[in-house]
Amino acid sequence: MSVWDDLVGQDEVVAVLREAARAAHAGATAGMTNAWLITGPPGSGRSTAAVAFAAALLCEDLVDPGCGRCEACRSVRAGSSPDVTVVSPAGAYYRVEPMRELVARAAWAPSGGRWQVIVCEDTDRMRGPDLRWAAANVLLKAVEEPTARTVWVLCAPSTSSEDVLPTIRSRCRHVGLRTPSTSAVAELLVRRDGVDPSMATFAARASQGHIGRARRLATDEQARIRRRDVLALPTSIAGVGEAILAAESLVSAAKVEATELSEVRDAAETLALRQAFGMEERRRAPTGAAGALRDLEAEQKRRGTRVQRDALDLALLDLLGFYRDVLVVALGADVELVNAELADAVRRLARTSTPESVLGRVDAVGACRAAIASNVAPLLAVEAMVLALRTG
Amino acid sequence: MLDTGPVPSAPSLDPLAPVTLVVGPEELLASRAIAATVAGIRLADPGTQVHRLRATGLEVGAISALAAPSLFGGHVAIVVEEVGEAAAGIVDELRGLIAQPADEVHLVLVHSGGARGRPLLDAARASGAPEVPCPAVKSDRDKIAFVEAEFRRAHRSVTPGAARALVDALGANVRELAAACSQLVADCEGRVDDTAVERYHRGRVEASGFDVADAALTGQAERALLLLRHALAVGVAPVLVTSALASGLRTLAKVGSARGGTKSVDLARELALPPFLVDKARRQLPGWTPGGIAAAITVVATADAEVKGAGAGGDPAYALERTVLAVASARSTSPPR
Ligand SMILES: [Zn+2]
Prior knowledge:
Chain A is 58% helix and 6% strand. In chain A, strand 3, helix 5 and strand 4 form a beta-alpha-beta unit.
């Protein structure tokens, strides 16, 4: 199975990246660019595309790079290739110091492969809480004067100046992913994860094209239960006290989800580090081990906060999908509902509210997402939102 | 800047000297010395023009322009801070002014101590400029001596035990120590002793984020504002104020929607809150409507974004003041919902 197969419904992007990798292998520097920008809505597979491209650049198959079978392809996909670095902000946004280190590392020659690839996820988070692009400006220097054998792959929701520093954007070759269709996502779930077709269709529709989210909904009953609870909010909350309690359970559900997502990865990382220090065999910890473990723990904690925020954002996207359905029905548009299984509740709310009031609630959810992205205490932001969503 | 205490009666040195030196790291003492010198000049000429400058970032010629004789005459006081950090051009300019003093022009040169800019100080000293030392108040001994001097300045005395107790409690911050001394001077008569200090501590305005929230939630807008300023002055982070307001309102919303007859302990268990918080919320609830609580929470959420820098260039203190007022007035004035 080639590295491109994970990119569903993105034929055009695959064609461009594949051609670029082929040209790079042929030594034609003309077709190769050292800085790429991959855009697309959350869950459309930006990171997947970036990693597939990195694998293709390092692949041992020179004719059709990205074979998915060779040692290089496999190590890149497993995240163990020394020549591929994937970075994401540890907290709500990228910090300047780690970015400086990364840029310094980019100046090294690749260890074994022909290329060194650095993937930066979520460049929209290179903007600090003060709205300045501090980390992005550090990166800009590297993108302006790239090292010959280093390829930067930046991922962003869109090319707008909110999502990527314009001076960086203008130096990158851009490819844009589209939201994959429901049928393409469902087909992937059936083929790759062995999900039952009707469940796959439900999950693909409910996740609105977010592949990772679709997989989770299809394979985890708890995730489905949490989603159902979130979608009960718009029709069940009337009182202020109720709203506050509902906000609390929404935030703690996101916390639970985030913990489940982080636990396995955190434990694996900790074990790997302990093994690297030989601590699993010997009883005494060697010098430096305690410090390294502490650093890892701090890093995991920061990442945990971020995973939690992302989990909360997915719940908010579910809410947006619900209100979109209500609007669709209220306006009498003939469009497939995201939440077909909640059609009754959707119709009831559409009957009892005006399009303006529905739009007001859409705004409240949007404001909550923006507030959380700018570091407002999540519980407080969600409380303000649920209060605004109250019926009546 | 915090209150630096009453301006001391005219210092023993001549405020009308063409150059006065204020030298040393203790900012409180330096700002007092500057105030005293300027006050002395004003005593001689109430129409004195006073200029305050920082030597860093000044353009050469700026000080000379201020020192140039004006058409209308009158005294001019020029306070130049951070002269130790001055660029060579500024140092030369100041040396020129020291060597050839102008009539009715008074330079107050402020230097934070240390070796930088030493030759300028030596030149001023050689010209006979009076000097106010502002030594660091660091060790406990320095601090006790400082407290004793504070009382002496006000023609009062303090027992050794009382001075010790003040330093133990507030010694981390010289300004706070000075504020406590002047409060004690104002509050009690005769020699200040341990009992007076103890009484002072008990009556001290507590100002954590929670105190601000408690005042706002009981509709005491004035008091809430006062506590807020106090809290920010002693270094309480703005986010602690928004989080205290949020948590107070959250408890109000939960307790307010519970059935009336429920016992506090039972309600506390049901809501997973400590019983004392339930009792406190019940005391605060009169005057609040659900709609008022909802409005207040929305305001606090906006403020939290503001103090965390979402509105770039915003002023957290101002955002908090508006919030505290809005929360206090959301009580009683809101329509029921
Ligand atoms: Zn390969």
